[in-house]
Amino acid sequence: MRKQQFIYKTWKELLLKVSFFPATATEAKDKTILYFHGGGFLFGDREDLPEAYLALFLKNGFHVLAFDYPLAPETPLREIVHCLEAGVHWFLENYQSRLNLLEPDFFLFGRSAGGCLASILTANHYQHQLGLIRFYGYHHFDHEEFVLPSPFYNHYPKVPPLTAQQLIQNQPTVVSGVAERFPLYLSARQYGNWLSYLGPKLNELTVNDKQLEQFPPVFMAQCRKDPDVPIVSSQQMAAAVKQCTFLELDRNAHDFDREKNPTATDIYQKLLDWLEEQIRNRK
Fold this sequence. Notes:
Layout: E1 4-11, E2 14-21, E3 31-36, H1 51-59, E4 62-67, H2 77-94, E5 106-111, H3 113-122, E6 129-135, H4 161-164, H5 178-190, H6 209-212, E7 218-223, H7 232-240, E8 244-249, H8 262-282
Parallel strand pairs: 3-4, 3-5, 5-6, 6-7, 7-8
Antiparallel strand pairs: 1-2, 2-4
């Protein structure tokens, strides 16, 4: 598949990039999915969307723009959000001149921590945002699962905090693979100190029910027995958003779409149908 790369922002000498995948369909819909990766804000790669599902978007006429963002704890979450706000504005300012698109209409899509980021940015009420796609994400941090030792992650070999903190860099960093930084996240969840890595003023990044009532249409999917992110967060959003499609999967998994499988393929097909519906409703 074709791909272009652009720098959308320089953050403390760190080059933040986007990967642009133009639609491969004969007739592109000229709608773009702005994608934010997962990784608990501590690790991850902008191109972590499984290739099978990326290709599905492209062949159905949707462009995909995948974003870097600086990682915590070297960069506090509030600054991560500011960087991605700049990323959305970069798209809106450059969709014609750099990406050769005719329309600025977009959907925000995030998985896990990326779903949190997409939720926070949706509260900005972008004029051209047609909807929010959130897979196993959240919109606030007021869950006891985030501050208590995780039974799921404590099945893994223990990573003491002092050992994990040796992975923290002296300068902002971006695009870190699972092998490099997952032990930092693992330790944070094992010892219940994950939120301390995200910086101060997390309450200011909470999306409240009043804001959710003003959201554009939302499509969500999450496993009912998600061992990482409490499903109650998705249930709360589904109850507050006026137009919400929420699919609860009867599985014990977090990123149910990590690899291609029949359940995930069915979810993505339902998502494509939902995307088509939002475009029809916009006309």
